[in-house]
């Protein structure tokens, strides 16, 4: 359960005095997530999520995240909307932390996604990229290549305590990726953390996307590489190419990949796996005393890295050229 910061009844009352949300009917810490403290808030008016931002979220970046959610929602994406208080502010302070109330989204995260879910996520990711094109905000990816060596250093030489050989493997990967990391790919706003717990479905219909607190400006195909990592591996560690094919086809049904993005996909997938291995490693070694949180397994991503290292080309992820439609062939 990710609740790092407890909120007293008195603090909550003081905070909600600034809003027009009606009487509080229920207020509970949420038993998911690892990054921020999240509370479910039911008032006489509606259901909401109250988030207190913790270690990895810089307060200066919050206007980017909140503005992005508003921008995407205006363009028809189902995502939480920040709720403004009586003075028109969405961002406040509670229990010493920056805090925001957002609207509650209906739906459930899928635990064992099928190919249909992967296709829907691919298409939604591309819609997000398209909708983000005219978003004026820019935020460099604070968890890209340039940060990985520092993250590894902050594990303080303890990687081999988690698995023998992990330190040398990770160092070799850092060195190699620094040498081959693709530059100049099409960029835009990316979600950067579109894992299964951040996408909701009602039945088979994708009903919403949450958790924009890693969103940034980076290579669009890197976001797809993150999703291939998060959605298309089986619990036994094998990559499911049927799911990969569905996800990439879903993505390309909205935004076809450029040839240089296709060529870069294996390297981007390696980088994405390394990024999540490293943040998980650091979290695994540094669980704050008393925090209600279950850290995620870094070795899951070390194993995924092992798979990506052997991939020779994007077809192994299920990439196929976009088929010409009857109309485009006829008009060609
Ligand atoms: N707008 C929302 N509507 C409904 N439920 C939500 C909403 N926002 C968050 N939740 C619930 O709270 C949980 C944690 O939220 P979130 O994923 O944003 O937390 P986090 O700590 O940033 O997690 P992560 O580890 O994925 O980064 C979600 O899994 C979901 O159950
Ligand atoms: N989605 C991340 C946690 C939030 O950054 C992970 O699974 O490691």
Automatic annotation (TrEMBL):
GO biological process terms, semicolon-separated: threonine biosynthetic process
Domain of life of the source: Bacteria
A Pfam family this chain is assigned to: APH
E.C. no: 2.7.1.39
MF terms (GO), sorted A to Z: ATP binding; homoserine kinase activity
Keywords: Amino-acid biosynthesis, ATP-binding, Kinase, Nucleotide-binding, Threonine biosynthesis, Transferase
Recorded metabolic or biological pathway in which this protein acts: Amino-acid biosynthesis; L-threonine biosynthesis; L-threonine from L-aspartate: step 4/5
InterPro entries: Aminoglycoside_PTrfase, Homoserine_kinase_II, Kinase-like_dom_sf, Pseudomonas-type_ThrB
Annotated catalysed reactions: L-homoserine + ATP = O-phospho-L-homoserine + ADP + H(+)
Family, similarity comment: Belongs to the pseudomonas-type ThrB family.
NCBIfam families for the chain: PRK05231.1 (NF003558), thrB_alt (TIGR00938)
Name recorded for this polypeptide: Homoserine kinase
């Amino acid at each position: 359960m990710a609740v790092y910061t407890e909120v007293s009844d008195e603090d909550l009352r003081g905070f909600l005095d600034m809003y027009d949300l009606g009487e509080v009917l229920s207020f509970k810490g949420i038993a998911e997530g690892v990054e921020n403290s999240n509370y479910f808030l039911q008032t006489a008016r509606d259901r909401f999520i109250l988030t207190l931002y913790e270690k990895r979220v810089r307060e200066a970046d919050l206007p980017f995240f909140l503005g992005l959610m508003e921008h995407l929602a205006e363009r028809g994406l189902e995502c939480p909307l920040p709720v403004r208080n009586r003075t028109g502010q969405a961002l406040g302070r509670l229990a010493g932390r920056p805090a925001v109330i957002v609207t509650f989204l209906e739906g459930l995260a899928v635990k064992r996604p099928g190919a249909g879910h992967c296709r829907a996520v691919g298409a939604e990711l591309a819609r997000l990229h398209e909708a983000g094109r005219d978003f004026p905000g820019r935020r460099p990816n604070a968890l890209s290549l340039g940060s990985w060596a520092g993250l590894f250093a902050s594990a303080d030489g303890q990687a081999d305590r988690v698995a023998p050989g992990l330190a040398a493997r990770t160092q070799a990967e850092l060195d190699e990726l620094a040498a081959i990391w693709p530059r100049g790919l099409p960029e835009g706003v990316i979600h950067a953390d579109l894992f299964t717990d951040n996408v909701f479905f009602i039945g088979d219909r994708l009903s919403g996307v949450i958790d924009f607190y890693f969103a940034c400006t980076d290579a669009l195909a890197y976001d797809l590489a993150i999703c291939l990592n998060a959605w298309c591996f089986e619990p036994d560690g094998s990559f499911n190419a049927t799911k990969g094919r569905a996800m990439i086809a879903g993505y390309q049904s909205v935004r076809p990949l450029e040839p240089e993005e296709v060529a870069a996909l294996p390297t981007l997938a390696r980088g994405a796996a390394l990024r999540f291995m490293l943040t998980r490693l650091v979290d695994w070694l540094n669980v704050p005393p008393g925090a209600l949180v279950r850290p995620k397994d870094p070795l899951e991503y070390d194993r995924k890295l092992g798979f990506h290292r052997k991939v020779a080309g994007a077809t192994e992820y299920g990439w196929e050229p976009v088929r010409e439609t009857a109309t485009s062939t006829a008009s060609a």
